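Bumping my old thread because nobody answered last time. Still need a sequence for this structure:
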C-alpha cells in the first residue's frame, strides 16, 4: 500500500508544479523567448545563405537569453517597487 500512496503523492506534486508553471504570464514569456529564438535563427540562416554576414552558431542563443534577463529584471523591479 505504501507505493500506491507515494505514486499518488508524486502525481499530485507534478500537477501542482505544472499548474504553477502554466500561468498566463509564463506563457507570454515562453512565447516571447521562442519568437526571439526563431528570429535569431532565421536571421542567421538567411545571412549565412546569402553570404552577407558570417554567423558563429555558438552565440545564436544570446538574444533569447537577453530577452529572458530583461523580463526577469523588469519583473523583479516591478515587484520591488509595487505599492501596497
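Sorry it took so long. Here it is:
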Amino acid at each position: 500500500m505504501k507505493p500506491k500512496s507515494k505514486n499518488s503523492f508524486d502525481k499530485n506534486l507534478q500537477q501542482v508544479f505544472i499548474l504553477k508553471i502554466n500561468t498566463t504570464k509564463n506563457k507570454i514569456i515562453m512565447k516571447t523567448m521562442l519568437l526571439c529564438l526563431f528570429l535569431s535563427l532565421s536571421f542567421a540562416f538567411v545571412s549565412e545563405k546569402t553570404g552577407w554576414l558570417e554567423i558563429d552558431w555558438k552565440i545564436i542563443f544570446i538574444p533569447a537569453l537577453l530577452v529572458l534577463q530583461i523580463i526577469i529584471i523588469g519583473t523583479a523591479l516591478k515587484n520591488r517597487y509595487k505599492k501596497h
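Helices lie at 2-21, 24-50, 62-80. Let me know if any region looks off to you.
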